[in-house]
Amino acid sequence: MKRKCWMIFGIFAAITVLFIAAAAQAAPVGKFIMVQGHVDLLKQGKLPALAAKVNDGVETGDVIRTKAKSKAQVQFVDDTSLTLGAESRLAVADFSYDGRQRRASINLFRGIVHTVVKQILQIQEPDFIMQTATAAVGVRGTEWYALIKPNSTLVYLPVGRLAVETRNPHAILLEGGFWVEAFKDRLTAPRRITPMDINTLEKLMDSGVPESQDFQVTPGGPPAGPGITMPKDPESGLPLYVPPIYQMPIQRDKPNIITPGPGQK
């Protein structure tokens, strides 16, 4: 009888652990704190799309997309804020935070996003990763803009420091006050951000990013170069779960590290 009771208790305990694990996995990792215009939320990347509202929860695997003249801001459980501009798409590929450790991976497919990571944890490696078709951005705590062009990614860093890596072995440690353009196989030299650039970025948050490789935030920026061509409708056929960079690291030998030259400061 005692053995049977212990077996029943063991089964009950196992079911309880599984229930708690499932509940934790489904727990929101953030919520909408601002919604303007038409903003869709695809739970776990699946249709039907739901109209996002303020205070709606965001979970790992969710896809957020904004329509024309629309914006959304998500606040994550670690106090990171992510503002998605008009005509943009992203997926919350991975997010976990327990007050001491963080593991976050955001996949940006289209448009423009302004990210502010406030919590700086005591670790050496970046714990917040943003991936695009041509680059990966890794930070511990900073503020930046990321813009998607047909064949490249623009990264503007007003303050802080972050690492930008291309899909081929090229990397840069970008300092605050500079911006760079990342193609699939190369990086442009960093250039200083101007007040006009910040003003243009804020306007693009409202209007969206033109779908042209010739477009530049900074007049006279680097010319278009070789890259990859993204689909015109990236919202169709989005994966249910985009593997984060932690699980699928880019294989490299020795990256080419670029630092701003004396004439670029």
The percent range for helix content is 10-25%
- Order of strands, main sheet, comes to 3-2-5-8-9-11-12-15-16-19
Query: Could you tell me the radius of gyration in angstroms?
Result: 20 Å
Count of discrete alpha- or pi-helical segments spanning 4 or more residues: 2
Largest sheet entry: 10 strands, mixed
Short note summarizing the structure:
The protein is mainly beta.
Write the layout of secondary structure elements.
Layout: H1 2-26, E1 30-36, E2 39-42, E3 50-51, E4 57-58, E5 63-66, E6 71-76, E7 81-84, E8 89-97, E9 102-110, E10 112-116, E11 128-131, E12 135-139, E13 143-149, E14 152-159, E15 161-166, E16 170-175, E17 178-183, E18 191-192, H2 195-207, E19 256-258
Parallel strand pairs: 9-11, 16-19
Antiparallel strand pairs: 1-4, 1-6, 2-3, 2-5, 5-8, 6-7, 7-10, 8-9, 10-13, 11-12, 12-15, 13-14, 14-17, 15-16, 17-18
Structure, described:
The relative contact order is 0.13. With 265 residues, this protein is mostly beta strands. The model is unreliable at 1-24 and 224-260 (pLDDT under 50). It is globular, with a radius of gyration of 20 Å. The chain contains 2 helices and 19 strands. The protein has one domain: Jelly Rolls. The protein has helices at 2-26, 195-207; strands at 30-36, 39-42, 50-51, 57-58, 63-66, 71-76, 81-84, 89-97, 102-110, 112-116, 128-131, 135-139, 143-149, 152-159, 161-166, 170-175, 178-183, 191-192, 256-258.
